[in-house]
Amino acid sequence: MKQIIILSVLLLGSFSLFSQTAEEISKKSTDAIDVGNMEMVSTIHIRDAKGNDRVRQITTASKTYGDVTKMLIKFMAPADVKGTILLVYDYENQTDNMWVYMPALRKVRRIVSSEKGKSFMGSEFTNADMSKPSSIDFDYQTVGSEIYNDRSCWEIESKCKTEAIQNENGFSRCVSFIDKANYLCYKVEFFDFEGKLHRVQTIDNYKKQANGKYFAYKMAMENVQTGRKSEMITNQFQTGSQLSESVFTPAALEK
Amino acid sequence: MKRIFILLLSALSFLFLPAQSLFESALDLPTTANEQTTKLSLGGFVRGSVYGGAKNYDLTSTFAELALKTRFDKGKAFLESDIRLRKAVFFDENVQMIQLKELYAGYRGEKLDVLLGNQIVSWGRADGFNPTNNITPNDYFFLSADPDDQKESNFMLRMKLRFIPAVELELIGIPFYQASNYRYDLFDMGENVAFGSEIIPSKDLKNGTLAARLNFEFPVAGWSLSYFRGYDPYHGFDVQSVDWSTGLPLLTNVAVSYLKTTAGADFAIPIGKSVFRGEVAYNITKTIDNKMYIPLPDVSYVAEIESNLAGFTMVGQYIGKFVPDFSALVFPVLSDPLNSTAQMQYTNELIDYENRLFNRRIFNQQEKTNHAVSLTVNKSFGYDNWNAECTAYFNFTSDEWLIRPKLIWKINDNLSAAIGGNYMQGKVKTLFGYSSTVMNGGFAELRVTF
Lengths: 255, 450
Prior knowledge:
Mean pLDDT of chain A: 86
Helix content of chain B: 10-25%
Oligomer: heterodimer
Number of domains of chain B: 1
Strand content of chain B: over 45%
Number of strands of chain B: 22
Number of strands of chain A: 15
Shape of chain B: globular
Order of helices and strands of chain A: EEHEEEEEEEEHEEEEE
Shape of chain A: globular
CATH class of chain B: Mainly Beta
CATH topology of chain B: Porin
Radius of gyration of chain A: 18 Å
Largest interface: A-B, 53 and 50 residues
CATH topology of chain A: outer membrane lipoprotein receptor (LolB), chain A
CATH superfamily of chain B: Porin
Distance between the termini of chain A: 23 Å
CATH superfamily of chain A: Lipoprotein localisation LolA/LolB/LppX
Largest sheet of chain B: 18 strands, antiparallel, barrel
Strand order of the largest sheet of chain A: 8-7-6-5-4-3-15-14-13-12-11-10-9
Number of helices of chain A: 2
Order of helices and strands of chain B: HHEEEEEEEEEEEEEEEEEHEEEEHE
Mean pLDDT of chain B: 90
CATH architecture of chain A: Clam
Helix content of chain A: under 10%
Largest sheet of chain A: 13 strands, antiparallel
Structural class of chain B: mainly beta
Distance between the termini of chain B: 39 Å
């Protein structure tokens, strides 16, 4: 769950192009959007094949302390989940700690980590899409080059190493389109367990932040098998966070 | 209590200006007034609910309800309200009411929170069965799709002191006792049993409740120690009178509250992809004159594991109770069937026996050690638009069981529907045996949230 804004588009490999391996390309792509501490307000539109629209709104704050990134996600809409807050302690080398505060329960509850392949808030995005991928879980390969939206991109494939990793992430492999000029990723194609194209993610509206990193204000995910499409728009964003560490604690969730 | 009120006054006297981050300012509906940020949040829901199909009622509970929830913040001061307007037919009786589900004012600071008013408190890390949670009364006969609807607030002063972010001391003072609501008058307990007005403690501060909880929440584990001293909302019954005027005994039972002291503890430890939870409470009572409505001292405990398996969230629990001073009730013997005095004595002993047994069932003190298990399975599917849940409970000691399935469909962002059922079964004269004729059945709810 580290850094909700960072997409799982950064896939490492051993294939070399222009003396860069897929791993190196992905690493640079990761670095390009690693904004560090941040706060943001996002809206997710979920549209089914009939055009019905559902809207989710969340606010997120993330801050790193030593080897742990602490993240708060507060649900603002729809009304039935308004006020619910999720607190995640994301560690590099151990299982995450998670707590949830639901106003109806009137207490903070420690919960177990959700499956990565599960839908994020009922959208086409999965929890894995919201997370930074673990590089050791994939085999990487540069499978070609393509002009995408007038940009020359590498096509980098990441393939799940085991069936268990497939099941956890909800896909067998994916191909990322990474800009050769600035290492920004503009598109990711996800393939299901049978190797068929399942979901296509597009990433737009990158803006350079004060710290030199890039942030994408618009992302869309289309399920090409069902016709459902979800769009995540960042309404407000800032690098850094004014929140004190005491806010990132279970005791503060009830406030 | 004086100290508590002095603390409250001093806490409210130094509200100060907050600095707002994007995360904070984006919440609710912020407006800026002078130097302090003011937020007003309005929400709630309207629902129609039907619960019926029991042996004794076609429709046990039908109601339409408006819940109006308000939250107002200005600086560190705030108020919170949950007000319900309800038009209902409960157990064939018309009810129209305004309920203050919660209504309180407060101050929230970095180290200290002070809250005063009607609040619902949920102590204990276990789910559903919380032996350390003796503060909030329940209306066990408010039948709806959501068991949390049964929680009722109490007027209280509540303070939270945070020594460090992970360590919090909570202090609660409740001036006036409020009992949980039982409707045993609805049960088929025989024509010779009636229920009188409950006997509750007078509204004197000496009959108030004091409770404290020292809570620790660290990444590796969370745990707490708690203390409660007061009258238990979960009261017992006494035989108020026996009327022999008709030749047969006519009993009038009354609810009677009892004083108890509880020392409790709980914990939650994440291990891998599971969370282990536990809760234990040592309940100390004084059974003066061997009053039947006062339970024996006991140790109540819950052990719980929650895991995710193939997309299903499962919560398994063991619920136990140990009664150190337990001794079995002795069934009375008629010493001389031809002696009227002996017959009278025998009948009185029989009445005493039956009612003691009834109270022991209420208190789950039917054996020296009492055992029960429960399992809840929950799964969301269809892009979280559907949620299915089923809870099953079995009491090994009393041979009672319950099953409660529920399905929720989120039709759109504001409209949801829930259907389900509640089926319990127990032997004759057990709690579930009595309850099943009233509380078994199906339910349906349609809700619009705003």
